[in-house]
Design a protein that fits this description.
The chain has about 325 residues and is of the alpha+beta class. About 35% of the residues lie in helices and about 25% in strands. It has eleven helices and 15 strands. Strand 14 and strand 15 form a beta hairpin. Helix 6 packs antiparallel against helix 7. About 45% of the residues are buried.
Length: about 325
């Protein structure tokens, strides 16, 4: 008898379109001989759909054995949809609701990283727009310019900017609040090589298997922004041009932060390799699976097909 796998994609986040593509990759690569697949679409307002018709979540969830999450950003990666799946007792792949919340909340994630002994950029945290002027003044006094301004709870580098000087920093902070960010982080800008490392539980006999390190080389006038991620213009080298020592340290810290955040099944974390060491930036609990995404590239580098990876995720979800 086939296992019924529900693939959730879309969702009420700024990454809706990318989520559709990740979900489509899942749908196309789940082996038909093993699984009966249900395409579960969630629109931008949060309404669930089955076969083109609106449906209550509990109705479609009663029809599946396990769920794969092709969702990104708010609702998908902040623990909200995970709470729903847990409420209805549906097995699913990826971090649980609390681990998802910790990883998505950049301040919480940085605190866990520091507790685990990892380097992470210094920062200032704002919860309300009224603090923007004071924070911008403090940042100019205490941080080298430019700095990184980003929303605390969004993913895929949505809303991230690198700016220097009082007026640009203040403007970037105020714009994020105006665009709906619930809170903002201003972070020191670490110069170095950008890297990302995926880890997968239970792969090839290892409790936590580190995939090859990918080096990210944006165009000279850009960083790994949302546009750079999906434009195809950024160079992504796998395995990256790192020394053996740096490569092993990157893989070590990727495993360390996966454990420190209490994640499960798989994750992908981003770093900067600087002269002072490896700096942790953030963790993706539901990494993209589009043709431009990083995790499929690192899987391919070690001979793991997307079909095999998705089957592995289904098995992990059902074994818990």
């Amino acid at each position: 008898m086939q296992t019924v796998v529900g693939v959730l994609r879309g969702g009420p986040s700024r990454e809706h379109d990318v989520s559709l593509r990740s979900g489509a990759a899942m749908l196309a690569n789940l082996p038909e001989e093993r699984y009966a697949v249900r395409d579960i679409y969630i629109d931008r307002e949060g309404q669930w759909h089955n076969r083109g018709r609106p449906v209550k979540p509990e109705r479609i969830l009663r029809q599946v054995d396990v769920v794969l999450l092709g969702l990104h950003g708010e609702y998908g990666e902040d623990g909200e949809v995970q709470k729903l799946l847990e409420r209805f007792g549906v097995p699913y792949a990826g971090a649980d609701s609390f681990g998802s919340y910790l990883a998505m909340h950049k301040i919480m994630a940085k605190m866990r990283a520091k507790e685990a002994g990892l380097l992470t950029p210094e920062y200032r945290y704002l919860e309300k727009k009224e603090d923007a002027v004071e924070t911008a003044e403090e940042v100019i006094r205490n941080f080298h310019q430019p700095v990184v301004v980003k929303p605390v709870g969004w993913g895929s580098s949505v809303g991230v900017s690198i700016v220097g000087g009082y007026a640009p920093v203040l403007s970037a902070i105020e714009k994020l609040f105006s665009d709906g960010a619930p809170s903002v982080i201003v972070e020191e800008y670490i110069r170095g090589q950008e890297a990302t490392v995926g880890v997968i539980e239970g792969l090839r006999g290892e409790a936590l298997y580190a995939l090859p390190v990918i080096e990210i080389i944006p165009q000279a006038d850009d960083f790994f922004s949302y546009g750079a991620k999906y434009s195809g213009e950024t160079r992504e080298v796998c395995p990256g041009n790192f020394s053996r020592v740096a490569r092993e340290e990157l893989q070590r810290v990727a495993k360390a932060i996966h454990r420190a955040l209490g994640l499960r099944h798989y994750s992908r974390s981003d770093f900067i390799v600087a002269p002072k060491g490896v700096y942790y930036l953030e963790t993706n609990t539901l990494p993209g699976l589009t043709t431009e995404s990083l995790l499929p590239k690192s899987l391919a580098a070690v001979g793991v097909s997307l079909k095999d990876f998705l089957s592995h995720l289904v098995n992990l979800a059902l074994s818990r």
